[in-house]
Structure formats: C-alpha cells, structure tokens
Amino acid sequence: MSKLLTNTVRFSIADSDFYFKKIMIKTLLESPFYMLLNDCNNGHELVNRIYRRQEDVFIVELFMPVLSGIEAIKYIRKNNNETPIITYSGTYQEDMAEILAKVPNLYYCEKKSNIIKDIIKGKVTSNTFDYESYTKEWEQQPLAVQEYMERQKKSQEELSPTEIQLMKFCYEGFSNKEIGEKLNLSTRTIDTYINRLTEKLGLKTKFHLIRFCVENGYYNSST
Q1: Residue extents of the structural domains in the chain
Q2: pLDDT above 60 for 21
Q3: Which residues of 144-173 are buried (b: 16+ CB within 10 A; e: fewer)?
Q4: A Gene Ontology MF term for this entry (predicted)?
C-alpha cells in the first residue's frame, strides 16, 4: 500500500560497495521524511538485523559477498511479502530479472542513486513512477555490458588525469583549501577548477560531482 508523502519512509540498505552506499544514504537523507534503520555491508548482516517489520522499503544490491542480494531477498520474502524491495545491478542481468520477476512487490533497476530514489518516491510513497516502461527501456539495451564499458572508456578519455584526481580528492572528503595545499594551488584556483568540472559534466554541486565519481567507478581508478 502506498504511503502518504508526509509520512516518514524508513529504509534499510545492504550494499558491499561502501562508497555507493554512502552516496545512496546521503541522497535519501537529504529529505526529512526518510529514516535509515540498518546500514549493512552484505545480505547476511541485513537478515540478522531484521527483528520486526519496521522497514517501509529494503534497498539491496543484487551481487554481494557472504550472502548475495538474491538470497537475502528470498529470506525476507519467507515471512514478509508486503514490504517493497528495490534491488539493483550495474547492468541488466536477464537471468536474474527472470528470477526476480517472480518475487512479489520487488523492483529491479540500474545501480544509480537517482533511479532508486525515484522508484522509492514514485512507487513506495505514491504511484507516479512508470516502472513497467522503465524496465522495458532498460532490458532492451543492446549489449548492455559492452555499452557500459564503452561509456566508461569514453568518460575516461574526456576527463584529464588532473580532473579525475580532483574528483577523487572530493570524494575522499578534502575541502577545497586542503586540495589546494596538496596540489600547491590557491583555494580560489581549486574553486574555479571544480566549478568548471561540474559544468563540463552537467552537474550542479560538489556533492553531485562526488556522486558521479562513485557511480562511475573513478574512486577505484589508478589515475
């Protein structure tokens, strides 16, 4: 049953990708109507913390060590068919989609914080998100894995090593002043560089730059 937008949305998340999970939690907690109940690193942690039906939605990465997302989902659904579950992966997995389609009240999507947030807002708290149309678009992407890798390569080619380093400093939590000290540049120069970089990528703020860095895997790059 959909919740009123004025009600608090209590969520638990399980994701082995620390940085994406951090971004996801921060994105949701920007709203005063969202409340984090459990922050888990894998499915095993999640199922061991579920004592009562407190969650309004579960957010579960599909592929995790120790206990996978699919196994955690099966465990949740043994005693609870009502609470919505959102699960995700980097690219569309046809075999997993077939299995997940049989799970009631579950939404499978791409590993993007904005999409996950839109599904929570548009399916858990209201009925404004066209999940069926979204799914058709995603599943029809030809050669999804290859396209994903090509997009990654293209992004790498478009960004200079200095720009990538700036993003990594940002996600590591350094202030512009601290970044300037590391690069022997003034704070004003760093301000200018970061502003230009966000504009180049079509982003709005430093936080959006950090999210871009995480969701596109730059924090793992050796640049």
Answers
A1: 9-139, 146-220
A2: yes
A3: beeeeeeeeeeeeeebeeebbbbbbbbbee
A4: DNA binding
Per-residue DSSP letters for 19-62?
HHHHHHHHHHHTSTTEEEEEEESSHHHHHHH--SS--SEEEEES
Of 202, 27, 1, nearest to 117 by C-alpha is 27
Helix, strand, or coil (residue 142)? coil
Task: Identify the architecture of domain 146-220 in CATH.
Answer: Orthogonal Bundle (1.10)
Superfamily covering domain 9-139 = Response regulator (3.40.50.2300)
Cα 92 to Cα 174: distance, rounded to the nearest angstrom: 34
Rounded Cα gap, residues 190 and 192, in angstroms: 5
Instruction: State the pLDDT at residue 10.
Output: 93
Chain segment 6-17, per-residue pLDDT in tens: 478 999 999 998
3-state secondary structure of 105: coil
Q: Decide: 19 and 219 in contact? Cβ < 8 Å.
A: yes
For residue 38, list its beta bridge partners: 12
CA torsion 86-90-92-93 (nearest 10°) is: -90
Q: What tokens does 92 get?
A: 């569309």
Query: Starting at the edge strand that comes first in sequence, how are the strands of the sheet with 106-110 ordered?
Result: 34-40, 9-14, 57-61, 85-89, 106-110
pLDDT tens figures, 85-135: 999 988 888 888 999 999 999 999 999 888 999 999 888 888 888 998 998
